[in-house]
Amino acid sequence: MTKAFTALAFAVTLSIPTIVEADEGGVSFWIPGFFGSLAAVPAQAPGWSVTSIYWHDSVSAAGDVARAREIQIGRVPANLTASFTGNVNANLNLGLVAGTYTFATPVLGAQASASLLGVYGSNSSTLAGTLSGQLATPLGTGSFSRFDSINSSLTAFGDLLPMFQLKWNAGTNNFTTYVTGDIPVGAYQSTRLANIGLGHWALDAGAGYTYFDPKTGHEASAVLGFTYNFVNPSTQYQSGVDMHLDWGVSQFLTKQWQVGLVGYLYQEIGCDSGSGDRVGCFRSRVQGIGPQVGYIFPVGDMQGYLNLKAYGEFANANRPAGWNLWLTFNLSPAAPTPPTTSRPRFTK
User: Fold this and answer.
1) Helical H runs in the chain?
2) In 3-state terms, what secondary structure has residue 58?
3) Computed over its alpha carbons, how large is the radius of gyration of the chain?
4) Over the chain (348 residues), what is each successive 10-residue block's mean pLDDT?
5) Pick from 39, 76, 61, 58: which is nearest to 244 by CA?
6) Backbone angles phi, psi at 148, to 5 degrees
7) pTM for the predicted model, two decimal places
């Protein structure tokens, strides 16, 4: 059973570390749900593996988040103290491809792997509502009110996302540590509501644990990480440090079928800053939970794995919330088959 199960480690955990902007727009570099079940279990064999993902995200927000998005794209005058009554909505459909190489030589007693992920897809965002407040002018302060309706759609490439990971195994206990980040080469404009690229560099690191018993099929995983966001050179805005906890629990019903739950907790623990920050500390928060199902099958001399998981979000603050769906296909080397020993033949 171990041979079948361990191929899932990368396939279940890989998702998307960046999509739109940083916390200055209410959306983080780290996309909650990046890690899931079997996050710390080493791959079954060294070599190349490929993972492709379809990701759909549908979210909305009102109040301060919508106002922050208008400020970010430069639609709010600097001398206006305003509130916003309305909503911002976003629908994203993205395809991702990641190539991963798992090294045969251990590093610090762990299995090491390096991956690079690319993004291509669409983002359709809308903002509609009334902006009102007090406008300061040389002649004094007066009332201000304006109805805004913005529609923005984009289909383009996103940023490049490298990751390096170490995984240790000790029986049913598995441990991992990782470092990843954002190389801002994707489609981004600070004055555009919908973006695919991040617009600035980011660095993220963390560690996790998986309990996995191949005999019973019981599994539970959790990964804790932190994101450091660099200054956005287009807006001079720097998001605070983000903390994120991704978790998953599952049961293997057979050698091929897996069912369970996944979830996450995201909390910005540092205040936003920079000369372009006009919204204050603006700490973001969101939680999510949902089901997952996985299926293992052979593909020639390789092993394939399909995983479907979905999250419903709640308890959000200064951040859009909604639901998201992940469909992941992983193709990886199968575990080597132990050589067959033949019985000795004796002759007189």
Assistant:
1) 2-5, 8-13, 64-72
2) strand
3) 23
4) 45 40 59 90 93 94 77 70 82 95 97 96 91 78 83 95 97 98 94 91 97 96 97 91 96 96 95 85 92 94 94 92 95 75 48
5) 39
6) -115, 140
7) 0.85
